[in-house]
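Researcher: Here's the sequence for the chain we discussed earlier.
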Amino acid sequence: MRDAARSARAKRSGTTGRRSEWLAIVWLSVKGYRLLARRFGGKGGEIDLIVKRGRTIAFVEVKARGALEDALSAITPQKRRLVEARIRQWLAQNPWAMEHHLRADAVFLAPRRWPRHVPGVFELVL
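Model: Thanks. This is the structure I predict for it:
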């Protein structure tokens, strides 16, 4: 029974994550960003969205929580290190991007609140 409960929870979490990413894509596209990649990476962490606007490429973490304040605190130092490792991997596959301004952004989501896009949510150490 525990495995079934865990499986159901994981399925809900995956559905919520995909819905949140879709909402973040719509929100960012309205702001003029173009999607380059979604869910880049895999085991050991992933970058939720990679978007481009002008000469800026943003690596976006999407965090959905019950309260916006909880979403704001969801990017831990460990998560930052994992994201930076994936950014280095993406840049190795896309060397053209090194000529752009690179930034770590976040989109925070909570029920009955407008999404909150935070450019430069943390400084990249590449």
